[in-house]
């Protein structure tokens, strides 16, 4: 799926400014560390930038911090997830708190989503 130039530029800047939970999860995913699967970080997809994306599994992994539960963010996330689903991409949302507390548990959650 093609992403506009604006989205690709945003993805590039987000790769350089990842949050601590994103960095910790990326260390566990990069280099095909999770069952040999290739994940991309801050991957542009249409009008959106996905925190982590595995094309072979059509799985988007989003690390959600506090802001994802505030204001209009839940509705925007729902709209985004629906758009991704229309593209055949499943979205798995993992709390930033879980990643900070137990990266292995976050990886186990991703593995479980991959198996279902």
Write the layout of secondary structure elements.
Blueprint: H1 5-15, H2 20-29, E1 40-45, E2 48-54, E3 59-64, H3 73-86, E4 90-95, H4 96-101, H5 103-115
Strand line-up in the sheet with most strands:
1-2-3-4
CATH structural architecture: 3-Layer(aba) Sandwich
Domain module tally = 1
**Chain oligomer state:** single chain
- Main sheet makeup: 4 strands, mixed
Order of helices and strands: HHEEEHEHH
Query: N- to C-terminal separation?
Result: 24 Å
Q: What's the mean pLDDT score?
A: 91
Q: What is the tally of beta strands?
A: 4
CATH topology: Endonuclease, Chain A
C-alpha Rg, in Å? 13 Å
CATH superfamily: VSR Endonuclease
Fraction of residues in H or I helices: 40-55%
Number of helices: 5
What's this entry about, in short?
The chain has 116 residues and is α+β, with helices and mostly antiparallel strands. It has five helices and four strands.
What do you see in this structure?
With 116 residues, the chain is of the alpha+beta class. It has one domain (5-115): Endonuclease, Chain A. Helix content is 47%, strand content 22%. The protein has five helices and four strands, in the order ααβββαβαα. The chain has helices spanning 5-15, 20-29, 73-86, 96-101, 103-115, and strands at residues 40-45, 48-54, 59-64, 90-95. The protein has a four-stranded mixed beta sheet, sandwiched between helices. α3 (73-86) links the parallel β3 (59-64) and β4 (90-95). α2 (20-29) crosses α5. The chain is globular, with a radius of gyration of 13 Å. The model has no long low-confidence stretch (mean pLDDT 91).
